[in-house]
Specification:
0% of the residues lie in helices and 59% in strands. Strands 2, 4, 5, 6, 9, 10 and 11 form a seven-stranded mixed beta sheet that branches. β9 and β10 form a beta hairpin. The N and C termini lie far apart (40 Å). 29% of the residues are buried.
């Protein structure tokens, strides 16, 4: 089992920044993928950014140049630095982890609200 706990969400004005954190714990932490998804009301959940244990990253086109994902493998923690936030970034952000046996785990979600 893997448990994921997100933190760092909140409300900011457009142009501001937030840093999200996701810490993994549990009995089997053989994780080779961690990522951030988001879901706004009426929209599908979408991948925002992802990182492998080897450090390879991928970003949604809408956040490239503004968001940065990073990972501390020793601490089993992934971060999402969000800069130049826009109102359209408003959503619930979810941490996701994939174990080496392809089992996925989700965090509880953290609200990010960007006002204009």
């Amino acid at each position: 089992q893997v448990q994921l706990v997100e933190s760092g969400g909140g409300s900011v004005q457009a142009g501001g920044s937030l840093r999200l954190s996701c810490a993994a714990s549990g009995s089997d932490l053989r994780i080779n993928f961690m990522g951030w998804y988001r879901q706004a009301p009426g929209k599908q959940r979408e991948l925002v950014a992802a990182i492998t244990s080897g450090g390879s990253t991928n970003y949604a086109d809408s956040v490239k140049g503004r968001f940065t994902i990073s990972r501390n493998n020793a601490k089993n923690t992934v971060y999402l630095q969000m800069n130049s936030l826009k109102p359209e970034d408003t959503a619930v952000y979810y941490c996701n982890a994939r174990r080496t046996d392809y089992v996925h785990y989700w965090g509880q979600g953290t609200q990010v609200t960007v006002s204009s």
